[in-house]
Amino acid sequence: xxxxxxxxxxxxxxxxxxxxxxxTWSGLRMMSVQVKNGQLRNAPSFLGAxxxxxxxxxxxxxxxxxxxWLEVKISGNxxxxxxxxxxxxxxxxxxxxxxxxxxxxxxxxxxALAGKGFxxxxxxxxxxxxRDIDFTWVNRMEAIRISRQEMISFLKSGGxxxxxxxxx
Amino acid sequence: xKQSRFIRVSRGFIVLAxxxxxxxxxxxxxxxxxxxxxxxxxxTGTITQGQAESIKxxxxxxxxxxxxxxxxxxxxxxxxVAATVLHQYRPYDNEGANRYLNMVGQTLAQASDKPETFGGxxxxxxxxxxxxxxxxxxxLILVTRGMLRCSKSEDALAAVLAHEIGHVQGxxxxxxxxxxxxxxxxxxxxxxxxxxxxxQELAQVTEAFEGSISDITSTLMNTxxxxxxxxxxxxxxxKILRRVGYDPRALISMLTLMDQRLQRGGPGFxxxxxxxxxxxxxxxxxxxxxxxxxxxxxxxxxxxxxSIGAV
Lengths: 168, 311
Hints:
A: 168 residues, 5-stranded antiparallel β-sheet, B: 3-stranded mixed β-sheet, 3 strands, 5% strand
């Protein structure tokens, strides 16, 4: 009785592990860039040097994963590391862009149509109804960008260093 | 014996049921179940075909609400939330101070669990004596001058910003949107396969958008997040600060100063956040036993005072 129960549990746990591994595995391979401007680096760290830029909707092929970083291959056989928060397993399709929604074999649920839903049109309509809400400073703050080089020298000159190693 | 066997059987059942829940929890697997139920409804004459279609659409929409908010949509929500907050809190136009704020903030954001958002993290000081800070979805973070005055070092400033990054990372703003709003917007979107909506659909989606903005801004400015979400943001802050190399204990020194300056029952942070003393207690247990960080050289304090000292 004891033995049977033990075997049952082992079977369940094995099944569960298989399920998780299979899901993760199938989630890898091809992914889409889900941010406006994505950057590929030469190492799995934000302090790694920039090797290529990717744009919203670009497809990347995942080669390997190291913690939160993915080594990916893009067109022209170029490789680099990108943080996993910049990509999605859902295929992002740009309407009116190079890729056409109809050409994708995936079902509707696996597709995210870029620019659908809350978008620039909705923002424009909102602005038309709320003329007192001013977006000038939102645009101005969005324009404040700190480069990787600036971050590195800022950390260095302030003596800010992690005992846990580099910024990941 | 009989009883213990029953316990064993029921324990096995719980494990199996758990596994079943895990498998069924995706809305994809729920959909066939709904299809069958609605088909039965039509067959038995309790609902019309039109109603059945509508039920199916709504079910799909409800199941997908949060994950259907793509980073791109979160970005547009965040922009309007920030613009709405900036309607009440005027920007503080000081290029040097704002650039320094972004230097600290954007560097911290890179060490968060969600360093990449659609439009990136950007920080701005707002001209108010109130002690407060607001994190709009997607990474637009506003900090009052009153809040900056509670920070006496770069590490303390980093602690404030890391806490706000924690709210962005946890999508706390998006979670403040009432489900019904997203449901109505997504129901429209689910039936639309094309990007360009008709004028009537656009009006309906915009209405859901306006509602979402008002849910988030009223949470940010009036009601505040739950104690649990604040604790989550503090936890993220401790993690981010450690990863970069700032002292997570600076969160405690900042909260201590804030506690002295906050007017109980007053506006701003006092109204929207748990008592600083409660947070200090929680954070103390989070940082307990952590090794001391690398000591801050004088240069760090010098640049902090030069950039923020006069704010």
